[in-house]
Amino acid sequence: MKESSRKILVANRGEIAVRVLRACQELGMRTVAVYSTADRNALHVRYADEAYLLGPPPSAESYLRKDKIIEIAKACGADAIHPGYGFLAENPEFSRAVTEAGLVFIGPSPESMRMMGNKVEARRIADEAGMPIIPGCSSDLTNDEIVAFAETIGYPVMVKAAAGGGGKGMRVVRDAESLPAALDAARRESTAAFGDPAIFIEKLVENGRHIEIQILADQHGNCVYLGERECSIQRRHQKLVEESPSPFVDEAMRKQMGEVAVAGAKRAGYVNAGTMEFLVDRDRNFYFLEMNTRLQVEHPVTELVTGVDIVKEQIRIAFGRRLRYKQEDIKLKGHAIEARITAEDPYNNFLPSIGTIASLTEPTGPGVRVESALYEGMEVTLHYDPMVAKLIVHGTNRANAIMRLRRALGEYRILGIKSNIPFHQRLVENWNFQAGNFDTGFLAANPDLMDDWVPSKRRTAAIAATILAHRRRQQALVMVGGVGDSPSQWKIEGRRRAVRRN
Amino acid sequence: MKESSRKILVANRGEIAVRVLRACQELGMRTVAVYSTADRNALHVRYADEAYLLGPPPSAESYLRKDKIIEIAKACGADAIHPGYGFLAENPEFSRAVTEAGLVFIGPSPESMRMMGNKVEARRIADEAGMPIIPGCSSDLTNDEIVAFAETIGYPVMVKAAAGGGGKGMRVVRDAESLPAALDAARRESTAAFGDPAIFIEKLVENGRHIEIQILADQHGNCVYLGERECSIQRRHQKLVEESPSPFVDEAMRKQMGEVAVAGAKRAGYVNAGTMEFLVDRDRNFYFLEMNTRLQVEHPVTELVTGVDIVKEQIRIAFGRRLRYKQEDIKLKGHAIEARITAEDPYNNFLPSIGTIASLTEPTGPGVRVESALYEGMEVTLHYDPMVAKLIVHGTNRANAIMRLRRALGEYRILGIKSNIPFHQRLVENWNFQAGNFDTGFLAANPDLMDDWVPSKRRTAAIAATILAHRRRQQALVMVGGVGDSPSQWKIEGRRRAVRRN
Amino acid sequence: MSTKYSTYVDGEEFAIAVNKDGSVAIDGETVSVDMLHIANNVIYSMIAEGRSSEVYASLEDGAWRILLDGQRYEVIVEDERTKQIKSLQRAAGGATGDTLVKAPMPGLVIKVLVEVGEHIAVNAPLLILEAMKMENEIRAPREGIVKEIRVEAGKTVELQQPLLILGDPEAEKQGDS
Amino acid sequence: MSTKYSTYVDGEEFAIAVNKDGSVAIDGETVSVDMLHIANNVIYSMIAEGRSSEVYASLEDGAWRILLDGQRYEVIVEDERTKQIKSLQRAAGGATGDTLVKAPMPGLVIKVLVEVGEHIAVNAPLLILEAMKMENEIRAPREGIVKEIRVEAGKTVELQQPLLILGDPEAEKQGDS
Predict the structure, then answer these.
(1) Which domains can be identified in chain B, with CATH numbers?
(2) Which residues pair with D135 in a beta bridge?
(3) Is the ipTM of this complex over 0.90?
(4) Contact of A329 with A40, CB cutoff 8 Å
(5) Tens digits of per-residue pLDDT, A325-355?
(6) B19 catalytic per annotation
(7) Strand (E) or helix (H) holding B409
(8) What is the reported pTM?
(9) How many other C-beta atoms can be found within 10 angstroms of the C-beta atom of residue A380?
(10) How distant is the Cα of B360 from the closest Cα of chain D, in angstroms?
């Protein structure tokens, strides 16, 4: 079958759905979107050639409806399904059902997905493949058994959900007293997020860096690694900034990590794109953490430094084509950084922010790539993940990339919701970040990055607001009535009083 | 002086002013914009740290005011002036006056600019440097003398303005009868555009390709070429699409052209970024056409395939730094194409279109770069060049780049003016363009590319408009009054009648 | 019950009925349509039988300007009543076949290339207008007879200023006979 | 003549006078200002003594939200008269020192971490709200005494629903004395 006559259904939403649709379009393939009623107007729906309704907003009734997605794919004559990340991307039953329906699943087989998707089993395979792993327990223990195990490895420990990722269910526990409550909370979160209460604990490697290796494997036994990504800038185990290459990794270490990642993937019979996550301690020892058996949020930084379009390669691999790259073809050129843009208020404990996008200006120009689900008029709701866009920059070296990121963040304008852009702006000004001196504890150790700060343009803001208020006053005959008629008089009072106390 | 404490004034407007401002910002330098009253709200004014008024809209009273620009630069403490392209970029007196005012001019010296800027003198220097040139006359002949000279080289001939570029004043003349009128018209245009009636003629090389070599030269005698750009897709001698590498040039030819370009630049004592333009005939013979002693509109395609930021290099060179690249460092990776986005109606003889930008969506995602002066609410006027933006794509090879360009053009939405985007959309579907089979006569030979065509979505457009009209009808109690009350009843009639005749 | 329209897209005619349930019948085929406004008064999303389209639509001078995948379409939607009135008026005669050519931009008329009474083909050059320091040919939007020229060389014109009127060649013939 | 304002940016006070000629005096220094609306009701360009700024501004709940270089500022502009009335009212006493903490998003209250009467510091955790499948701590926007708690664990709350009221610790002391 000619590739250009193929039709791909993208079983996802948001920026990643648009990313995959673009790749299909550039391959000349026809595209199908699916959507919940909350997403009727979403970019991915408008971008695809065809679009079909899945159901109401809750994921369980829409984007997690395996049966309905496969039914739509068959009805509209799709040849393949791309799951994106999240939702059904790491669901072995979905992968199997798609294949059994006579469609191509753009991702790994259900077997290797099941094997590597469960964190505990993945640790076993990694161990067999010769990868260093961190001491930890299995996920079938009771809370009491886990507490007992913790005594054998010593505190601090890390609590993790056996299923899924994205930091959900993860917790650091520093003493025996806190462990039972943490286990309960983690089981609650894991059940809510993945429908699976299974958790386990590992010894905590403190001040570690989170560094991961991207791999690509075809159906013919070829597998390459596309360098590493540095993902240590995290808040509550959620990545905020990723870059490639890592300022901590040299050529020898890259080769060593890449080769064990490929060995592990081969042992698992893994096919398609995948990522081996490692924790790296201060002495450059690296430990296998888990494998993500899907496309990663942060894949663009690897694309920018290697020149490989990972999504297009995923599609080619799924249709049985051979990898176009040998290991010696993969060379990292320049430096790329990604900043995840979330609808969260960095000045208020990163609380999710909702609202209608009133105005949007995305950065552009040299070395800037934006992957976004945003548009003017969009309703940002609480139904789905607060990550609404990604800003990725590419520069000749890390310093250039940071300066470019700084420039692009200054151009980014999102009105109608609060975003974490001010957090990123503070981060790029931080000397330790600029110097590459950070680990996964960086944000916890630098809480000022998430506090209100005194930006340099208060005076400008004062002048601008005063002129606008003055104009409004001139226009209106009567401006302010009595005191207390404004709905937020309390807030205003509180703010002014806060000042006086300084 | 530390680079980051420097202040740069950009003596230009539009997308190129924004491009240069971004480079300064990424170098940590402070920035100054200048503007005419027509550009008070323009992006470059809002983007710069400081902005100063030059004068009323006509260029002669604003962007060509050498004295005023230098006065502003001195008053605000700027260290250097970047001229962009057009306006004063190739004006040797400006370059001299900037230097004499104690400021750094980011461009070549007045001497080499004068030498290479005059097309006739540049031909002489190229000849001396051993570059092949096309037979032609000097620019001090009367019309009668030119007619007589034409007889000695034979028709067809090309009429050219000695000053400036951009196709202004250029004309192909195929017989002696048409020559006098063409000379008059060319002198008129050249006078209007450059204040200089001097013109000359050259023998026309038919079915030639326009291929140019980008060079960078520092103040220390180092000079490199950054590969070639293919610029044969032209309409009335104005480039519409540029790419790098050229599908027509192989490694040996690239080296040969690059080396003579470097030799010519060295002979002229040239410093900073410059471009040698060549005409290449079917047998791969290349002839020197002219040198552009400035940044080119199409520089981004070279940046994307070489990884060199030409604007940042210009600034470094102007401040006396050494080139960071040796010739062996320059490797072309992948393929880049630029589509110039103009406010012109491709369906109506490319007439300039004016209006207010009502809605704007720029393409983004992998491999897409937009350089733009557009924003919602912008007034597109007739004061300046109709080129309002550039869309540049980068792909792993030419086919990928074309598919990506096609995808990005489909995402581009500009409402409020007519743009040439539909022309580009037809071009990328053209098999000869896709195959790389074209020369500077391509558009003239394919007038259908500029005609109205029958796009595939008429039925969809019909349904959409009918539903909207129906809703409007339902909302309004009375819809249409008598016939003839619509201001464009004539147009509507004409359109419908045109159909009936088919 | 449904409402019937004659819809002309760049000249091509479609017979479309909008049904009470929101579906549409186009040239006899029924199509379910879901059309929503997105933003900015002009952006819509339309899903018709699964086919998704982003539609930019605005009504200007009685015609809908529709932008689909970057391509522009001019659409005229007529309901039954309007159509009947027009067809009656046409039967009664009238100058409905005239086309007014207006200046697409302000500029200086360099030269007028046609004369009154001349029969010109579609796309024939009518006059040369200088703007943005370039000479631009204004061409005939349709075949016709030059009925009137309202400008002359050397004069500046404003945007949308009438330049000349093209009459219907057939109508002229009938008038002569 | 000029109009005088007290302008508070995230708490910091500026004394600003807008002069008849459009210039502004800020803390005594006169600044020429050119401020123009660009688009979308919220985008402005301001050039003050040559310094160029792109300003996104909107008035929400009596406060101006100003976005400059991607950074957000909350600005309250008071004219002389308003200021006087408020200062009189404050002198007369009143519950002006209370802060109402509202839900920043809809969600499920997992746990309330404070009690009525408790004296809490700024940024102290008040309660845990689950939304987007994550547990989020709601923290104190200021120092204060918990005067009233309006929610309890296990209840869902709507966006902007009042959660609790923080009273002024000094006012409380005065009340007690």
Answers:
(1) 3-106 (3.40.50.20), 107-134+207-295 (3.30.470.20), 135-203 (3.30.1490.20), 334-459 (3.30.470.20), 466-501 (no CATH)
(2) D130
(3) no
(4) no
(5) 999 999 999 999 999 999 998 877 888 898 9
(6) no
(7) helix B398-411
(8) 0.83
(9) 22
(10) 12
